[in-house]
Amino acid sequence: MVRWKPGARERLQAAALERFAAQGFDGTTVAEIAATAGLTERTFFRHFADKREVLFAGQDEFERLFLAGIEEAAGSDPMAIVAAALEGATAFFPDERRAWSRARQRVIDADPGLQERELLKLSGLATAMTDGLRRRGVDPTAAALAAESGVAVFRVGFATWIGEGEERPLAEVLRAVLAELRTLVTTPQA
Amino acid sequence: MVRWKPGARERLQAAALERFAAQGFDGTTVAEIAATAGLTERTFFRHFADKREVLFAGQDEFERLFLAGIEEAAGSDPMAIVAAALEGATAFFPDERRAWSRARQRVIDADPGLQERELLKLSGLATAMTDGLRRRGVDPTAAALAAESGVAVFRVGFATWIGEGEERPLAEVLRAVLAELRTLVTTPQA
DNA sequence: GACCCTGATGTCAGCGACTGCCATCAGTAC
DNA sequence: GTACTGATGGCAGTCGCTGACATCAGGGTC
Asked: Which terminus of chain B faces fewer neighbouring Cβ atoms within 10 Å, N or C?
């Protein structure tokens, strides 16, 4: 006989998303999530550092994809490397995941606390990208700027991809947004 | 006889920054801040929505400067308008404020929770700028991109301005960073 | 002067997030 | 069989934060 059912972590994540969607983030207690997953509050906090984190697990994998894109990119032009990183990260969001991403994003968009956490994650991503670029010999300030721009492109692109009616795969959307950034910044000032 | 000394809000802010710098954000309780300011915990929460917010009051004024820059900018090129907004916002950070900004930033950089809040504020700024640009007829996606880029430039520039040994005024640093962004994105890919 | 109203504060009770400490007990190794 | 490990539960306690109610100086009204 097994003492505990396996997959506690996954059960907690599923229970949390379901509850948050139904009653809101603030309207859901950790004890409630744990009970839904057949566990206790104490166990929840052994799997996730805090209540918000339950929605952001797996982010490490996402960051690793980004960095892999940077490592493997050819050439030394910062924005070209960033473009490669963006390309690599799209593997984390296949089309099958779009509906799930939408649901998760709805929950996040409804709570400032969750938005904070999301921003922190993206900021960490930018920092990691900056380091990766610098390791490839890019000038420090240029690296920071390129990384921040890359994350900005991702944000705008991801929001578009999530948007109603949008059907293009993420990679295609990101390429379009990046092209738009180039146009925007290149256009002579009025 | 006065029942309460005036300037409770300012006293709380000063006490908080002093304590945070001395014992860290987590190592300081709200009750302690309030006591230092000669008040109670309950009163603290009447002035600030939460413990973090005590370091971010006055942000509205900052945002207003940004928006004013957008309203008053000439021409219709998005990045030119953003440049004007950046220019306008520098009024919020005269050179006399550099030392204070450094101290405050040290506290923020030492605590992830405070970084989250800072990011949320900057994100709100980007959203406000996006709206401002759209109101001026800029294409929605271009507006979002231009605003995000503008905030990225501000972030990088502000960090530089705060940096050790840096002596140029913020406006000058921001102009340099913006120029660098243009170069970066314009450079042909390798 | 008596009256009332307002506004900033204090007091208190209570919830929920989070942590430290110790107990439990199936499975595994030896 | 004994010892060890690892995921969990139980419990007490701190702290952030909120709602409800009380207090009391100052200002206005009559």
From this structure: N
Protein A45 CA to nucleic acid C6 C1', in Å?
46
Structural domain count, chain A: 2
Chain C nucleotides near the protein (CB, 7 A): 7-12, 16-21, 25-27
- Are residues A89 and A127 both part of a single domain? yes
Residues B73 and B139 in one domain: yes
Q: How far apart are CA A118 and CA A52, in angstroms?
A: 10
Report CA torsion sign: A46, A49, A53, A56: negative
Q: Which of A75, A119, A159 lies closest to B123 in CB terms?
A: A119
CA distance B81 to B138: 10
Domain CATH code at residue A136: 1.10.357.10
Check if B124 contacts A (Cβ < 8 Å): no
A16-24 contacts: CB < 8 A, separation 24 or more?
A: A16/A54, A16/A55, A17/A55, A17/A103, A17/A104, A17/A107, A20/A55, A20/A107, A21/A103, A21/A106, A21/A107, A24/A110, A24/A111
pLDDT in tens, chain B (190 residues): 577 888 999 999 999 999 999 999 999 999 999 999 999 999 999 999 999 999 999 888 899 999 999 999 988 899 999 999 999 999 999 999 999 999 999 999 999 999 999 999 999 999 999 999 999 999 998 898 899 889 989 998 999 999 999 999 999 999 999 999 898 878 754 4
- With CA of B52 and C1' of each nucleotide, the nearest comes out as D16
| Distance, Å, A9 CA → C30 C1' | 32
**Yes or no, beta carbons of B83 and A145 under 8 Å apart:** no
Which chain A residues are Cβ-neighbours of B155 within 8 angstroms?
Answer: 148
Nearest alpha carbon to residue B150 among B67, B34, B47: B67
